[in-house]
Design a protein that fits this description.
1 helix, about 45 residues, about 0% strand, mainly alpha, about 40% helix
Length: about 45
């Protein structure tokens, strides 16, 4: 499971493609299909 905060799915996809996938391949692991779920959160100022 990978949890982080991105403002758009496109930002997450570029991180996944450029960072996560190459590291999984280097470790000899095959990635499962990614699932993106929106999450709403509110923080006090």
């Amino acid at each position: 499971m990978l949890c982080n905060v991105w403002t758009t799915e496109a930002e997450m996809r570029s991180f996944y493609d450029e960072v996560v996938l190459p590291n999984l391949a280097a470790a000899g692991l095959k990635p499962a299909e990614s699932v993106t779920s929106p999450v709403w959160s509110f923080a006090r100022p």
